[in-house]
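Researcher: Please generate the 3D structure of the following complex. Treat every line as part of one assembly.
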Amino acid sequence: MHELSIAEAVIKQLESYAGTHPGCTVKKVTLEVGVISGIDRSALEFAFPLALEASSLDKLELEIITVPVAVECQDCRAKSAVDKFMLKCASCSSTHVKICSGRELKIKSMEIEEA
Amino acid sequence: MCKNCGCDKLHQNAHEHRHEHGGHYHAHEHHHDHESGHEHQHEHGDHQHEHQHPGITHVEMALNILSENDRIAAENRALLKSRGIVTVNLISSPGSGKTALLEKTLDLLKGDVPCAVIVGDQRSDEDAKRLRGRGAPVTQIETDDSCHLNAGQVALALEKTLQPDTKLLFIENVGNLVCPAAFDLGEDFKIALLSTPEGEDKPLKYPSLFNTASAVIITKIDLCPYLDWDIEKCRRYIRGVNPEVLLFELSSRSEKGVNSWISYLKTLL
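Model: Done. Output below.
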């Protein structure tokens, strides 16, 4: 539901970059979105062009990299992927685990064209 | 290892790392030196993986999308800490009993712990009206069409809400089980509420909130006799997504279990 806010926040950062780099046009942005970031990928893809239209930027490509949930076991130190979202070590079944990925909500990179 | 580019150095957040593609074919074997926290460039040598980018420059960002919100949240946190105020951000679905719990909490803490409340809803001041007159200043934020509070809205509300003696600040977020979890407001503790009529499976269905909460409060336990409510299953699901979370089970209406919530709040001060 807050994907429009997220799209607007991304565009604000791109506008700020463009503002401090005159002559640069952003052609593509790549985001990293974790599975448990609370962001729905299709809703973000839907919201992004709408937010873009309301901005000072030209049309640009959006790429979303989905980051799966992974945990690090605090008992046996094994790192494992979490399939269904039940936090448990795949190696020793301990629930004493720390999430090491899956919450990302990041602008990973951009491609820009310089005049 | 650097999570941004996979090299064996640790980079700071938000530096720029760029390489030029001058319209030529190039490989993506990146051999480069890093210096800290600045803009730098490198060349491509080998030619294994080919694609053409006429005049296109790739810029690594590694920026949190909500970094502006996070910056303001950090300011809120610093301000609250400097005044010795503990802040609790209450998050749940609409109708889970956040306001009812706050009504009861304010009544029980009145004259003992000086509290303040910031409450968010899309529209109306119905919640503020319910919470006023219980010994704590209350500020209502109307978010219009937004489904969550953000740190900027809270920053503005802090000025008019905090009193010189405030010790405990409650932020009642907009009723929503998903979006508010993503927005840091500067709180010390995120607390999730789950009411029995919502069903035991909500922690599994909405893990992003339940996983980041410091405590989960199961509310409306007085309704258990009328529902097919399986408390063990609910506890298992909550622990499944957040193994070490604190758990409270209470009814604001009957007051069953409310005392342990009040004692917990006092331990935070």
